[in-house]
Write a structure and sequence with these properties.
The complex is a heterodimer of chains A (169) and B (198).
Chain A (H helix, E strand, L loop, with lengths): L5 E8 L6 E2 L8 E8 L7 E8 L7 E9 L5 E2 L2 E5 L2 E7 L8 E8 L8 E9 L8 E9 L8 E4 L8 E7 L1
Antiparallel strand pairs in A: 1-13, 2-12, 3-9, 3-13, 4-8, 4-12, 5-6, 5-7, 5-11, 9-10, 10-11
Chain B lengths: L5 E5 L14 E8 L7 E4 L9 E8 L6 E7 L7 E9 L2 E10 L2 E6 L10 E8 L9 E7 L9 E9 L11 E5 L9 E7 L5
Antiparallel strand pairs in B: 2-13, 3-12, 4-9, 4-13, 5-8, 5-12, 6-7, 6-11, 9-10, 10-11
The chains are: A mainly beta (169), B mainly beta (198).
């Protein structure tokens, strides 16, 4: 009996422009994308998005709530009509060896009655008013098709990064 | 496949609805307080070679006096914690960041005179704790408002140990009070998830 369990579908790690989870099977109650990631992009903090089934059109919405980049400004952004739904904010290469924790729960991915939606947290410790993330991120794909592929956007994960896609029974 | 990208596992890729039924989100260890003199609990084995993801789920009752629930990594009590936190309590909220703390504050606990106030509950999340990099530890903690304590709170905090220092693989994790004691029956449960079923 594997009720409410997490079944690893695919684990991607190492340096890459982005991570692409392909051939995602249907039948799970939800999906979970979880791991530690740092961007190799030359930034302090990097906002990453996610696309479904290789759809690069402006068919996504997102919302964010929490702190990123510093702890002096509360972020409460939202948008509809983007070319990817927000996934997370992680540290960039300027931070050095400094990986962020990411956990995103994805709902309705194989339910043709509704859009696919995701929500979760991204956490990056930092000092004083330094660069950090302690934020809730969410996004959705304005399409009811069954999702079989998830691609990160603008992530550029470095060699130490890893994300695992789980299916929840 | 891009250079440097490795696929650790591919399961159930034929659209079979999940492939293996073998689950990987598992209970590892639990600690339940049984006295009135405990002010610290430690998970000393993170089983990092088995689990890439770790999660602690805890629940506790606040004592008479207000206190903090704090987190320490590897027993480190030096000012090595690079932390950020934001919180709400009742109708107020604030945020803070520090690079010189001796621990991570996960939540402030309002006291309770009746002993029947709403419990606190929290989740601590970590990834790749056996790695040699500096991994952020995430903490989410909550308490519903109740008329016994007259407080409700939510706190989201994150920390990692001083990135300029050496290897900080996470070998143990401690949850402690600041000045009071845990309550008998307070419980802390460690769960792990593997990144592959093998």
């Amino acid at each position: 009996m594997a009720a409410n369990n997490w079944i690893p579908i695919e684990s991607l790690s190492g340096a890459s422009a982005n991570y692409s989870f392909t051939n995602i099977p249907s039948g799970y109650k939800s999906l979970i994308l979880k791991g530690s990631v740092q961007s190799a992009t030359g930034t302090f903090m990097q906002i990453c998005s996610m696309q479904c089934n290789s759809d690069t059109g402006t068919n996504y919405g997102y919302a964010e709530f929490g702190y990123r980049e510093n702890t002096t400004t509360l972020r409460t952004g939202m948008w509809d009509g983007g070319d990817g739904g927000y996934l997370c904010q992680i540290g960039g290469s300027y931070l050095g060896d400094w990986l962020s924790h990411v956990e995103i729960h994805i709902f309705g991915y194989d339910n043709t009655d509704r859009y696919t939606q995701w929500v979760g947290t991204c956490s990056t410790g930092a000092g004083a008013q330094g660069y950090n993330s302690t934020a809730f991120y969410s996004g959705y794909w304005e399409n009811t098709s069954v999702v079989t592929q998830l691609d990160t956007v603008n992530m550029n994960p470095d060699a130490d990064s890893r994300l695992t896609l789980y299916g929840r029974k | 496949m891009p250079f440097g990208l490795s696929k650790a596992s591919v399961l159930g890729a034929a659209g079979s609805g999940g492939g293996s039924e073998g689950g990987t989100f598992e209970w590892i260890a639990g600690i339940t307080v049984s006295d009135s003199t405990t002010n610290s609990i430690t998970f000393s084995s993170m089983e990092a070679t088995t689990y890439t993801e770790l999660s602690i789920r805890w629940s506790l009752l606040a004592g008479t006096n207000p206190d903090n629930v704090e987190l320490r990594i590897n027993g480190n009590s030096s000012n090595d914690y690079y932390s950020n936190e934001w919180w709400t309590y009742n109708s107020s909220g604030s945020a803070n960041g520090t690079s010189s703390a001796y621990e991570l504050r996960t939540v402030w606990t309002a006291g309770s005179t009746s002993g029947y106030a709403s419990p606190y509950a929290g989740i601590v999340n970590m990834s790749n704790v056996g790695g040699s990099n500096k991994y952020s530890v995430e903490s989410l903690a909550y308490r519903s408002y109740d008329t016994s304590s007259t407080y409700g709170t939510f706190e989201y905090s994150t920390t990692l140990l001083n990135p300029s220092a050496g290897n900080y693989a996470i070998s143990s994790l401690t949850l402690k009070t600041s000045s009071q004691y845990f309550t008998s029956g307070d419980t802390f449960q460690l769960f792990g998830a593997k990144s592959s079923s093998s």
